[in-house]
Write a structure and sequence with these properties.
Length: 209
């Protein structure tokens, strides 16, 4: 379904750490994903709702939503503000989203087409530390995962950083799909995940008129 962000090496490593309870119980997520566009951006396909389906919420925001569901689980409370601040278009150029699970864990997300300098930052907070993914390669900067591990005595955390080069996420996603077909199972990032993410997006569009 195109949820290739799950297959960036920084996120695969983050998933490994979370699954090994390297952060302890998860608390919340904070994330930003944005770029700035270019001259004539308001006349490109992303600005045409009939083609794109919506604005930045469905463009970049859907990846933040999927990644948040992947780590925190299903969201029961969905709120947000969609706004068009800069571009003269009929879709939103900024999406501010708050998602909350039944257990009270929150994902606080911001997708933006007015970032001007491309940015990607995804932070996962747990009782035992934090994981932070910065960059996606290319114009988003070096892909990097940083693990801030809380010490028993607390104070400044232990810090470990991994850096990754190249973007093999699309190939990795397709390889996972091929394995799932061969093994007769659902792949990571399947139609149910896509439907759940789109349901959240639909709720936000309805709430914002």
């Amino acid at each position: 379904v195109g949820f290739n962000h799950r297959f960036h090496p920084a996120f695969l490593k983050a998933r490994e750490i979370v699954d090994a309870r390297g952060l302890g119980p998860l608390l919340y997520i904070r994330a930003r994903y944005g770029h700035g566009g270019r001259r004539g951006y308001e006349r490109e396909w992303r600005a045409n709702k009939k083609i794109s389906g919506g604005g930045d919420l469905i463009d970049q925001g859907i990846h933040l939503i999927d990644l948040s569901r992947w780590f925190l689980g299903e969201f029961r409370r969905i709120n947000g503000r969609l706004a068009t601040y800069f571009w003269k278009m009929r879709v939103e150029d900024n999406a501010f989203v708050s998602l909350e699970t039944a257990q009270g864990r929150i994902a606080w997300l911001h997708a933006s087409w007015t970032e001007w300098k491309n940015v990607f930052c995804f932070e996962i907070f747990g009782r035992g530390g934090k994981l932070q993914v910065d960059g996606l390669g290319g114009s988003y900067g070096t892909e990097r995962l940083t693990h801030y591990r809380m010490k028993p005595e607390m104070g400044p955390p232990e810090i470990r950083t991994w850096e990754f080069s190249g973007d093999g996420s699309w190939g990795a996603e397709f390889a996972e799909f091929a394995r799932a077909v061969a093994e007769n199972r659902q792949p990571s990032g399947n139609l149910s995940d896509a439907a759940a993410a789109l349901k959240i997006i639909d709720t936000l569009y309805r709430k914002n008129g």
